[in-house]
Amino acid sequence: MKNGYFVTATGTDVGKTFVTALLVKKWRESGIDAGYYKAALSGAEYINGKWVAGDADYVKRIAGLPDSQEELVSYIYKEAVSPHLAARKEGNPVELSKVKEDFNAADGRHEFMFVEGSGGIICPIRYDEADAASACEKIVPDIAGQKIFLTDIMKTVNLPLLIVTTAALGSINACVLTVEYARQQKLEIRGIIVNRYGASGNLQMEDDNIFMMQEMTNLPLLAKIKQGDTDLGTAPF
Questions:
Q1: Could you tell me which residues come within 8 angstroms of residue 180 by beta carbon, excluding any fewer than 6 positions away?
Q2: How far apart (Å, rounded) are the C-alpha atoms in residues 43 and 99?
Q3: pTM > 0.85: yes or no
Q4: What is the DSSP secondary structure assignment for residue 226, as one 8-state letter?
Q5: Is 89 a catalytic residue?
Q6: Is 114 annotated as a binding residue?
Q7: How far apart are CA 86 and CA 142, in angstroms?
Q8: Where do the annotations place substrate binding (predicted)?
Q9: Catalytic residue (choose from 38, 78, 89, 147)
Q10: Which residues pair with 165 in a beta bridge?
Q11: How many whole angstroms separate alpha carbon 136 and alpha carbon 66?
């Protein structure tokens, strides 16, 4: 297993990119040459005449990364939908061989890697439709009907998981289900990071939710981040 972590979350809009940026920034400020990689990004932004991978660009700016956009992200889609649907509409579906090649190149440039996932842990990355697969079988049988999920990318890069969650109402269910699915897939989990701590205004509930998430998953709380924090608030782990 290589040096690094795969950052996933209990769902979309939990703040995974914000947390990943703070992680990369903290490691680099601590003297560790940390890098960043994301296999597939949808919802690119059109800025100054070019499509920009917003998540990767944010991490690059916050953490001061020297890498180019092409080195940070393998597949960029315009529409803000799941990568499997974006690829079906725009073309250029994800190939695990390219993900592996690009990740290994990024890993070779840096001492420690943070890989950011897309959406939640069960996010479909490529899901070829039956009619498209049938047509494809006549031409290229070995790539017909491919189905790739985020867990396949996790297994390809072979890094332990960091699970980003909030402590809001419903977070216990989302966190425990994410952990149980990861364990079902035989993925190693390093721990939990709570984002937007205090945002609900009910600290008694949030503190109890954090306690219950730890109790029910037997995983450590690695960091607790408030909205707008500019530092991870803990040393590299």
A1: none
A2: 19
A3: yes
A4: -
A5: no
A6: no
A7: 22
A8: 42
A9: 38
A10: 194
A11: 39
The reply, when asked if residue 116 is annotated as ligand binding, is yes
Annotated binding residue at 54? no
Which DSSP string corresponds to 164-222? EE--STTHHHHHHHHHHHHHHTT--EEEEEE-STTTTS-HHHHHHHHHHHHHHHT--EE
Could you report the per-residue pLDDT of 215-231, keeping only the tens digit for each?
A: 999 999 999 999 999 99
The C-alpha atoms of residue 151 and residue 180 are separated, in whole angstroms, by: 13
pLDDT tens figures, 164-204: 999 999 999 999 999 999 999 999 999 999 999 999 999 99
> 29, 67 in Cβ contact below 8 A?
no
Q: What is the CATH number of domain 31-158?
A: 3.40.50.300
* 119 annotated to a ligand binding site: yes
Residue 79 to residues 52, 84, 167, Cα–Cα distance (Å): 12, 11, 29
